[in-house]
Design a protein that fits this description.
With 266 residues, the chain is of the alpha/beta class. It has eleven helices and 14 strands. The chain has helices at 42-49, 64-73, 86-94, 112-115, 131-140, 153-160, 185-198, 204-216, 220-226, 228-235, 239-245, and strands at residues 5-8, 15-19, 22-26, 37-41, 55-59, 77-81, 98-99, 123-127, 144-148, 167-171, 174-175, 181-182, 255-258, 261-264. Its cofactor is Mg(2+).
Amino acid sequence: MSSSATFSLKPDWLLLRVLRGGAELTHGWASQNDYDVRFEWGASGVTALVHDVAVVVIVDVLRFTTAVAAAVSRGAVVYPYRSRDDAARSFAASIGAVLADGDSATAPSLSPLSLLHLRDGERVVLPSPNGSTCASLAAESGATVVAACLRNAGAVADWLRGRSQPVLIVAAGERWPDDSLRPAVEDLVGAGAVIDALGERASPEGAAAARAWRGVAADTPAFLSSCSSGRALISTGRLEDVRYASQVNASRAVPVLVDGAFRLVR
């Protein structure tokens, strides 16, 4: 199209703007603005919806947000970082933190069990391409960012209740080899567990996540150990991580991102 044109359809969330030199879509239809509780996937979901919400809850069950909850339950302070590389090491050194770059239950790593050894006040930098990225993007918008998993879903819902609405629940997902988003079903049901416990008016997307959670709630350990992400961890000797992550409402820890780090707020 050679000239600028604006087509406004009612209601106003159906808006298409065609601009000179290309098309720009204003995805108002994706906003879920009619609902107090909203749900989306991954970093792109954060970017699309974060500017219309007060609180963003990141869910990365296997294993980032489960690890964050484990660490803060010990009084540790967790700095999310998007990559595990020399830049992460430099950042950890600059703030006097331990870099969680190991992969065992004895050295700090993405394994939640390894973080149960942290001491009160200890700082840890926790790299994760999924949960950390989503948390960082949400924080850049000025929203309050919370880390949720199956272990603290009820506690997070209790903390959210009565606070500023609306809230966006984000299933972080995983990555395919081509770096595209792989929707991870454990994050879907983890998000659904928070939404179900919260009991507020959820969007159709959020309601679907809550229904998915209710469908597996009766046997969460079996579900987590048989889903793709669970099988991947088990195949590399991390069965105990999967078992730990499957313990529903075992923790009252609510990690909130403050000054670049997740800290215990209750």
